[in-house]
Specification:
heterodimer; A: alpha/beta; 11-stranded mixed beta sheet; B: mainly alpha; 2 strands; 33% helix; flat
Amino acid sequence: MSELLQRTAADLAELLAAREVSAVELTRAHLDRIAAVDGDQDRGIHAFLHVDDAGALATAAAVDGARARGEIVGRLAGVPIAVKDVLATRGMPTTCGSAVLRGWVPPYDATVVSRLRGAGMPILGKTNMDEFAMGSSTEHSAYGPTRNPWDLERIPGGSGGGSAAAVAGFEAPLAIGTDTGGSIRQPAAVTGTVGVKPTYGGVSRYGLVALASSLDQAGPCARTVLDAALLHAVIGGHDPLDSTSLDEPIPDVVAAAREGAGGDLSGARVGVVRELGGAGHTAGYDPDVLARFTESVALLTAAGAEVVEVDCPHFEYALEAYYLILPSEASSNLARFDAMRYGLRVGDGDPGATAEQVMSATRAAGFGAEVKRRIILGTYALSAGYYEAFYGSAQKVRTLVQRDFAAAFERCDVLVSPTAPTPAFRFGDKLSDPLAMYLNDVATIPANLAGVPGMSLPSGLAGGLPAGIQILAPARADDRLYRVGAALEARLLAEWGRPLVPPALEVSV
Amino acid sequence: MPPETLSGDDVVHLATLARIDLDADERELMAGQLSGILAAVARVQSVAGSDIPATSHPLPLVNVMRPDVPRPSLDTEEALSGAPAREGYRFRVPRILEED
């Protein structure tokens, strides 16, 4: 494997700016890596559903040309990136991991994608995911699972397992993910990478195929905290095309990451959330994951942070509320897949068939089991007579979760917890039990319900597999994640002596 | 309090509302799974008192307006590019009314 592939995005940006490497050379190295290790649904990492060699190389050549002419280009110009297949890409297939969108080529770009193009970042391709972002393992992709570069027999997390695996497997230095209940952070945790869910509204959702509109948020996937910050700065900020986009500048996350990298957290107040793996709440958590978490908290103390334990008593109801709110919103959002204007159409051959029959047959054929399950659950939770009992009650729990956060952030600048309760599990382990699968998101969901930002970064290894620590900050204070995350990362690296990398880098297909 | 278990018939009714055809195996499997999920989430009904307001959205929202002026949009070919069926410059769709 080319040494270039293991460099950070920040380093690559410097090499490109100094013209020590060309964007074409760098992009080709990543495309070669993808060809060597990505395989297909039966073998290899299978992080990608679509690879755009020609488009990526054309962008790279344009950046090289601009640099040669002395034009000013973006900080990450020429650094390749992978994009989760839930974001619309003009001229490039966008499937959301679903058969219902097989072969669909959007006629427009998502705002996140426009910003990547504007920044001169070659888009390597589209990454695999659980269908419509419903899942924690990529096993719900209609195109076969992505395999974890740490162990090809294990899940890479989900729904954004493709983006996390691409970054962990050195197929891309950076990737875009989306996080509705943990779909950036949980894959980051189980692949040993860094993932950030920004403040709700901090990154445009225009062109992001909606799962649950009050929860969805796009964000960066990377191998270091600084790299995530550099990408966050490219994609973040107000977008008039998204009416829920925050009309204010995002905090200076890059400066925060650079400041934190010094490893000094003097004056920072860190709260350990008791309900997420703390005393009396360890059921379901892997002991090694908890041990790595405790060691990381000790490093925060060593860095000068004041660490206290905080109670967020309603977090234990967050998972339940989420699994009513999400299906409710999803059942409404996914009604757009009606077989009329785009996507699959089944049953049109019978001239007597009505639109309703065609729609029902199409959705039967085009949606996988988990998507059907959640749409029907949401339909139930929203039905007349039960609306108040289910959706209404869940929305009240959401208020209580927000109040828990507000109280905790009066005492603390950031909160911490393990990101996911266990390391990567084996394929099939939780596939037949939806509730067991949902428990993967127990620690990540509260942030989505409250709209606050969250980061996962590696805390070490648990049984030879990566474990993650989650940092949470108040809404609009994403910079705190980067300061604290970079400080912890620096201290962990000093202990380890080198970054966590999968043992078998030379995966062959 | 709504029932916490769903029968196969309940699932058929919901699937009809959701416009998803289900076969018999799916109906039975889903009735069991959905009942399990509903039992697991049922306690949300007893967490919050009537004095707790509902939150629909994580951050307060204001209505967003823009000037009502023409601006570029997709052309007809782009808009039709993903159509499962077209007729001229229109989407061709199955009939929307039952025969009477």
